[in-house]
Structures are given as C-alpha cells and as structure tokens.
Model the fold of this input.
Amino acid sequence: MSAIWVVIEERDGRVSRISWEAVAAGQKLAALTGLAANAVVIGAQTEPLATEVASKALGKVVRVEHTLLAAYTADGFTLALQQFIEAEKPDYVVFPHTYQVRDYAPKLAARLGQVLIGDVTAFAEGPVFVRQLMQGRLNGSYRHSGSGPCFVSVQAGAFRADEVHAGAGAVTVFTPTIEHAQIRTKPSERFRGAAQTVDLGSAQMIVGVGRGIKDPANLPIAQELATALGAELGASRPICDNGWLPMERQIGSSGQTISPKLYLAVGISGAIQHLVGIKGSQCVVAINKDPDAPIFEVADYGIVGDLMEVVPALTEALKAAKQ
Amino acid sequence: MKIIVAIKQVPERDAQVRIDAAGKWIEESGLQYALNESDAYALEEALQLKEKHGGEVVVLTAGPERVGPTIREALAKGADRAIHIDCADLGNRDALGVAKLLAAAVKPENPDLVLTGLQSDDLGLGQTGVILAELLGLPHSSLILHVEKTDTGLTVKRELEEGWFRTIELPLPAVLTIQSGGNKLRYATLMGIKRAKTKEVRTVTAAELAVDSVPVAVLERVALPQKQKSTQILPGNPKEAAAALVDKLKFEARVL
Done:
C-alpha cells in the first residue's frame, strides 16, 4: 500500500495552518514520487477535523480515534500511529514541524527503526530533503536509506498552505489498542505565561536586539534608536534567556510573531526560531558585524559593521531627518 | 537522585563556516569548540536538582578526543564525574545511531533522571533526548523550562508555541530535554576548576558499546543557503551608511 500520509494537527478545533502547509508538502512529494497523498487525523473526536481535511485532494482521510487520545501525550500518539503505520505500511509520513511533533515523532520513528528527517525546508528529485544546519548558515541535503517508511517534518512557512489542491477524500476510522497504563505522563491544560503587557504583534516599528549587543549595559543605545523611530523594543531569545529584557519582549517561535512596517534587527544573527517570528515584516533592516549572518538572507537593507558605532550613527541620522 | 546529563561539544557560535573539500560537512581545522548552549542549561538544571535533593551528577558525551576541555568545563561547574564515549565518526551516525551509543552507556548506570539540551547548535536535530527515552524504555518530556521533584516523580513545565506552556507530571526514572532560559547559568569557580582535574573521566570506545552505526538518514552534501531576498548592503563608514539607510527607508521603502 504505497502512499504518503500527512499527519494533521489541530489548533482550536480547526486544521492548523502549518498542517495545511504539510498537506501542500505531501502533495508536492506525491507529484515527485508518483504516490498518492493521504491524511490522518488523530484524537478522541476527530470527525470535524476529518471533514475539513477531506475537502482537499487527498485519496484517503483516516481518523485515528481513541478516548485516550483526547489530550496529547507522546506515549498515546506514538502507540496509535505505530499501529496505524504497521497496518498501512506507508512509504512516507509527513508531519508539520511543531513543538508537539518534535516531542513524539523522533520516538515513533525510532520505534520503527527509522529516523525523522526534521524541520525540512524543501524537497528535490530523489527525493532529497533539505534542512538547515549550523543555525541557518548552511543547508544540508538528506536522503532516506534502507527499507521502511521515511519520516519527514516540514518547517513552518516552507510550503504554501494556499497551494493545497481541492478535491474529495474518503474518510474511514482506525481504532488503535491503547491501555491506560501505557500512558505514563499526565498533561495539564495549557496556560499562558505572565500577562502580556507588550503587544509587539500590532507594533508598526520594532527594533530587535540580539546577542551582538554583548552586554546589558549597551542596551540604552538600542533603546535610543527605538525612541528616535517611535518603535517598540524587542529581542531574540538569548537576550531574554539572560534576563537582559523581559520574556514578553521576545520575538520568534517561542515568543511573539510580529508584522511591522519596519523591523530593524540589531546584532541578531537570524536563527530560524527568530526568523519565523519576523516573516510578516514589510521591510527588514539588519545591522551585524558578520556579513554571512543568516539575517542578511531575509533583510531588505543591511549595514555590515560594529553595532556600537552604527546604531548611534543611525539614531543621529533619524533625528536629523525628522527636523 | 542520580542524574545523567548528556552534553555535546559544538563549533563556537561565531565560528567561520567553510564547507570542506568533500562538500559533506564544514572544515573543522582551526575551529573553536564550546559546550552546546541548551546542554549548558541541562547541566545547570541537574546541578540545581542535586543541590536541593542530593545525589550525583554524571556528564556523558560522545565525540573525539577534542571533547576533553568541554568535559572538564562541566566537571568544573560541579558535575561529579564523566563518561566519554570516544567516537571519531560521530558525523557519520544519524540521531538514532548517536542515541544508541548514549543509551548503551546510560543503561548500566541506572540513573533516576537523564537530562539533555533540546537541540544541538550545529546539526539542530532536536531528537537525541527523545530517541534516548524510547531506547531506554523511559517516559520523557521535551522543551522543559522548569523541573520540580514530587513524591511520585516530577512535575515539569513544557514550553509550547507563542508564549503558551503546559505542566506535565511524569514518574521517575525519566528523560527530559531542557530548553534554554529556565535557569541562570553558573560560571566555574577557581576551586571548581581545580577540583575538576581530579574527578573521574571514564572513557569507553564506541566499538566497546557494540551498537550498529549504519545511518537511516544520510547527510549527502552541504551548501550555502540561497538568499531569499536581494539585500542592499549600504557601504561606507557608520555615518555614511546610516544616512544612506535613512534615505532608502524614506524614499525607496517608504516606511518612515
């Protein structure tokens, strides 16, 4: 039963955006390999999700359903999908690369003697799967070798949700055998961190600070630039990890997603976790001493230099332009 | 509590990346190496748990001879002893292959808890800890920011996307992958550096662990990424570049 199966994840009861991107990736892989693309939804009540997915060009949609799958657990999802995969024997299993998938897909693959090729940004003939290495400074091309299914997860934004072809899939149900005692972890309901008082999401101008600032004593020069621009101050993860700026100012996959008119990245190298958070920015400016920093791959304008000199000069230039 | 912390030595963050002659990895000669960042947070979590509950912290790493200074750094920060899996061909093994090495070394130790960073800064696979749990038959949780010992096991705080979190209870023994930022990292003290010199580092070769090394996921070649946008780099001294940038933002991008 050669096929590609895309594992769908829900967000607030609907198919998540990145799951549609995974469907697009599955359909692209189908075109590349000549195999059929199908989808699997997993949970305790999957009918609405299955109906939503079945409107797209997928051969089959399977509801992997069990009361013990109501809340996500690595044990439960691994067991359920292991049984499904052993029954279905797919060639490829495609996941959206989410925090949840990162928690169980490597385990599932290992149980079946396989290795997840994770966080993939592109496919090529072969098929060859491209993923980033060295914090985005390099691309690596991976090939699956050996027998058994090939597990792939795709990076958020790497494939386009609006390129999913419409169609009609046939929905069936698969009931895995899961015992209560096999689920060893007990998750709570999700909760938000400290109340968010800084809304970077709707800010029009943002200055982001990264590791390049070197010392918290240097933060005022970034703050002065932000003030001159009328911008909010944000930061990459390491700055917040160090406690130099509060967590609520963090931009990226684990922090806030921004879509300003102007994003000015100061001393930010551009790790993927940060770049996914700034994708919606209309204009990106990078100031960095390293001309090879990945941030320059997404920047419209760049200044290569010492931020301790460039930032104050830019603040002065902005003030002068306003007069 | 006996805690094993699996750590990795990776190229230093600012290291110049040059592709090697075979086009399969980076040129390693002349590279500076450091302790992987999230592994440093895993070590910190282990040291804090030991300070609160007693026990032992054992660091475990796989790699060639050059990992020595990274092991000493972990011992200087407070780990009690170390196990070094001497392995010159780490790069030829995939995540499952590396996890098999680590699992073979962990098993005879029977730890209460295994910690590791959530991902390495070089390959960025983010899978080793999760696979290790599967190979050891232990429950796990990943992307953990906070760990609390309870009467029945652990309560941990897991990071989710976009500022959400989840609390998870799990029994011991268990495996956790630690996210950066949950604790403040300590520096090694002079006394710690001195003591590290006398702490036990047991070396075991990959061959002695007798695990297969045939990769399923094969890295065939590496390349520099193609630019998504054509970036205009503004030349000149800081003052000139700044003035040119303001001009561009005003009249070309029209965002000022």
Observations:
- Chain B touches chain A through 78 residues (CB under 8 Å).
- Chain B has a mean pLDDT of 95.
